[in-house]
Amino acid sequence: MSRPGFFDEYPSFFHTSATAAFPNRLNERYRACIEWNRPIISGKRVVDIASHDGRWSFAAIKAGASHVVGLEAREHLVKAAQSNLREYGVSENSFRFVLGDAFETIDRIEPRSVDTVLCLGFFYHVANHVLLLSKIARLKPQHIILDTAVAADHRSVVVFQKENPELESKAVRFDGNVQETVLVGFPSLPAIELMMSNFGWRYEYYPWRSVGIRQWDHIEDYHDGTRVTLRARSAEA
């Protein structure tokens, strides 16, 4: 039987998106992405890249974040995020959701105005990981929380594939891109670690296999290591 958790108290997030909205998955991901990182979220200014329906922005605020800026490319998800946070009584002064391509909207954020960056479920939906990390590094955050699918390869590689942008859980096609599919890349663990070290970030992984999980339904990817959660600390922190 799955363990009860954070999102059981906020069931709207089980319905405002069809993307992996399973109670066991959301609750266990909360423990890994938010609860494990409470010290680097509480009292901090947070940017939530690909904020979706606001689930992680909301969780960060409930964990004590002083303010969250969510970047999201799909308009219906921005509206869902705003609705969810208002439904659960979050102050309008605590959050802001920005509609647009993450690679563009992140450039509007001033350096040193962010303490912690959330990049949850987005890293493997892009093809240029180093560019994304360089844009994050420009902000000079103290910490990054990264949750991503990974390629099963012991070498430092990125496995490219195409995604259907019509699906909510996949990459987005922006105006000017006439292709029916979008190119994305799944980095291997050695590739992620090399990229992190290149920016001087020290990282550690959430120990998914040793935190007492007995029910692995809907989180099999974390069990078999094809998805990981890590936090990284900047050299300046």
Word description of this protein:
The chain has 237 residues and is α/β, with parallel strands linked by helices. The protein has a single domain, classed as 3-Layer(aba) Sandwich (Rossmann fold). It is built from 7 helices and 9 strands, in the order αβαβαβαβαβββαβαβ. It has a 7-stranded mixed beta sheet, with helices on both faces. The chain has a two-stranded antiparallel ribbon with strand order 6-7.
Question: How are the SSEs ordered, and which strands pair?
Answer:
Blueprint: H1 23-33, E1 45-49, H2 55-62, E2 67-72, H3 75-87, E3 95-99, H4 102-105, E4 116-120, H5 129-138, E5 143-149, E6 158-163, E7 182-187, H6 189-198, E8 202-205, H7 220-223, E9 227-233
